[in-house]
Amino acid sequence: MDPSEINNFEEEWKKAFQGASETPPPSVWEGIEARLDEGKDKILPLWWQSPRLWYAAASVAALLFVGVGLWYANDNKQIESAGENKIAIQKPAEQKEIPSNPEIANSTTDKPSRDGVNENNGAASAEQNDAGSSAIASVTTKKDKLRSVRSQRPSVVKGESLAGYSKEKGLDTNNSKVAKELQTASPVSPSVPESVVAIAEPAKELTTTAEMLASLPYRNLDVHVQKRYVFFRPQTQIEEPVAPPKHKEYWAALGLMPASFNPDLKVKEAPMAFSAQNVSNKKSVSGSSESGISYALQTQGGMRLSKHWSVEMGVSYLKGNSNYQGGGYVLNAYNSAAANVLENALAGLSSADASPADKMNNFNNGALYIDVDKKVSNNYHYLQLPVQAGFTINPDKRLSYSLLGGMMANFFLSNELESASGEIIRTSASDDIYRGMNWAATTGLRFNYRLSSKWNANLTGSYQKAVSSGFKSNQSLESHPYLYGVSWGVRYSF
Amino acid sequence: MTFNEQELVKGCKQRNRIAQKQLYDVFGGKLFAICLRYTKNRADAEDVLQDAFIKIYENIDSFRNDSPLEYWLRSVVVNTALNHLRQQKHLKELDDIDIHHNGIADKEFTLGNFQMQQLLELIHELPPGCQTIFNLYAIEGYQHNEIAQKLGISEGTSKSQYSRARSLLQQKLNKEKRFDDGSVRNKQF
To answer: Is there a contact between B156 and A117 if contact means CB atoms under 8 Å apart?
Structure first.
């Protein structure tokens, strides 16, 4: 007999049913569902004990503080707490069952006789494996031994089954022991020598069974006694897809935003030097701003509040370049001093700096208005502090989209205006012409691409619009800067 | 079918009905096939499957991902089936039997021409004890000492019952005459 084929019978059957599948009728699932629903009506609301809900409330309050309405809902947390309660109830109940079983006592008394049987059987099985060599002799001895086993039956069988049963009941404590015994027994059990391939297979099986034995507590579960544990499951949970429960996440981001910045600067009334003549009076208010190529350097910190909602803050430096066209300029016929309309208007506003005021005086007498459509550069520097709320679509996918909205505090740093003579007139926050801080509304759409679990790349299109004038109130100049930009950045999640 | 096993388990731990249904959809067919092997008819197999899934959902919290999910599910189903058989007192009458049929040289033994349904019918025709032990030993791969422990019988009983099952199946297969001549040779000693 070829030893490699001794397990052919089992192997064939195993192969025949390996991966066997038969679709159960729909009534089975309906039955399962009905049984799962049985305990649902008797519900105690335990979810309010979850501290996470209180964090959520705190987050909502914080968001209201910055003027952004935010709804925060995180239902999964409630489920978790309910699930934990269930385990807590279940464990003691299972433990109680074991000592209450009166059959355990029998196991010790029956052990000697049981061992006797096993020895005999062990001997018999050893003989069985050598069966090929001396057939008749082994049959006789085997039968004798089996008979001797059977002669002990009346006293043994009952005790044995009880012992076996009680041992099974007590497996919670003996689990590891049994598993170990099996593992140590595994190299011994196939006593018939086999080829390399054939040996590998049973060894694999033994590992499998040891794994199955590792989950022995389930053998103790009795079908007769069904326990129902009540857990809370909110109605909305049914519709919700499987989602990771943990949403808290912090990130830091860096970005560079090329932008189109327009200060939307308007001269409301003709400056002093222009107001003397009818033409200049009209023409001086006709100029307009043009967007220039600008950029912003952005740093950001954010926090994910729930699956979809997040809040972020940042510090950015904005260099806003623009041009002002039109309005003409005035020329002093005596000293050839010239001033364009913005220059002259700024000079009119200035109270602290003497030089623009002096310039203004140059045009009090004999100024000529020259109507030239000249373009002058008008650049700004701002420090921006945005606070935005974000709603993310597809938060757990590789590519997600966030809708952003919020407010931005723009701190005026300086303005550089090109004068008629080509000089740059620099106005800083201390000159008291521009507002030190100006509010702007901001909105945007961000594409976020996950590079790794920590790193993301993002592309954000944003629009910012100042809600109040950049100049101090009640002045002849008005500015409501706005900006379109596309920001490229990376984000690191903690 | 593509599914994330860990996500599925997590969903079931949260008692998410969609995840529970998905688990049922993914594994229900395979587990039902196991139930069919241990029981005598479809109605009983359906009962066992239903009980098994209730146990699975109620005890999913103790599944720790250290072994494959399918092994765990299979062991729950097998144990549920054994409980079912105990309940129906099918395993009470198990005893040693005289037939000791271990000398079959199953060289070239093959089930190649048989459909699963036919084999299932052959298994159903076995006496209940033989059927259970055959399933546990030949298909599930338990050793006789483990089977003895599971069923509360002696190792010898397990062996002799298995021999009987094997012998009966050989006879039935011979009767079917679906396989090549000489593919099964019974050498008794």
So the answer is: yes
In angstroms, the CA A449 to CA A437 distance is 34
Question: Are B32 and A24 within 8 A, CB to CB?
Answer: yes
Residue with tokens 């009728």: A25
Q: What is d(CA A277, CA A366) in angstroms, rounded to the nearest whole number?
A: 11
Give percent of chain A above pLDDT 70. 53
Q: Are A478 and A469 in contact (CB under 8 A)?
A: yes
* A57 inside 8 A of chain B by CB: no
Q: Which residues of B touch A29 (CB under 8 A)?
A: 21, 24, 28
**Contact list, B149 vs chain A (CB under 8 Å):** 164, 167-168, 178
| Candidate from A6, A217, A242 with C-beta closest to B7 | A242
User: For residue B139, how many C-alpha atoms fall within 13 Å in the half-sphere facing its CB?
Assistant: 26
Cα-based distances in Å from B174 to A40, A393, B178, B180: 54, 64, 8, 10
Distance CA A144, CA A130 (A): 17
Rounded Cα gap, residues A390 and A382, in angstroms: 24
Q: Compute how many other C-beta atoms are within 10 angstroms of the C-beta atom of residue A426.
A: 12
pLDDT reported for residue B45 = 92
Select the residue from B149, B159, B174 to test the A interface by mutation, using most A Cβ atoms within 10 A: B149
For the ranges A68-72, A264-268, A293-297, the maximum mean pLDDT occurs at A293-297
CB B129 within 8 A of CB B99: no
Query: pTM value?
Result: 0.39
B59 close to A (CB below 8 A): yes
The minimal CB distance from B138 to the residues A1, A13, A87 is found for A13
Burial (CB count within 10 angstroms: exposed 0-12, middle 13-18, buried 19+), residue A278 = exposed
* Cβ contact, residue pair B50, A19, below 8 Å: no
B69-87 helix and A196-214 helix, angle to the nearest 10 degrees? 70
In tens digits, what is the pLDDT along chain B, a chain of 189 residues?
A: 456 888 889 899 888 899 999 999 999 999 999 999 999 889 999 999 999 999 999 989 888 877 888 889 999 999 999 998 888 776 666 666 655 554 454 556 677 677 888 888 889 888 888 899 999 998 888 999 999 888 888 888 899 889 889 888 888 888 775 444 444 444 333
Structure tokens at B40: 């005598």
User: Cβ neighbours of residue A157 under 8 Å, at least 6 residues apart?
Assistant: B95, B154
**Most B CBs within 10 Å, among A117, A223, A226, A239, to test the B interface:** A223
Please state, in angstroms and as integers, the Cα–Cα distance from residue A387 to each residue in A90, A358, A409, B174, following that order: 47, 42, 8, 82
Pull the structure tokens for residue A413: 């740093």
Q: For residue B24, give the nearest of A29, A150, A178 by CB distance.
A: A29
| Rounded Cα gap, residues A464 and A485, in angstroms | 9
Whether residue B102 and residue A208 make contact (CB cut-off 8 A), yes or no, is no
Residues 6+ apart with CB under 8 A from A257: A295, A296, A297, A298, A316, A460, A462, A485, A486, A487, A488
Among the partner-chain residues A22, A157, A229, the one whose CB lies closest to the CB of B29 is A22
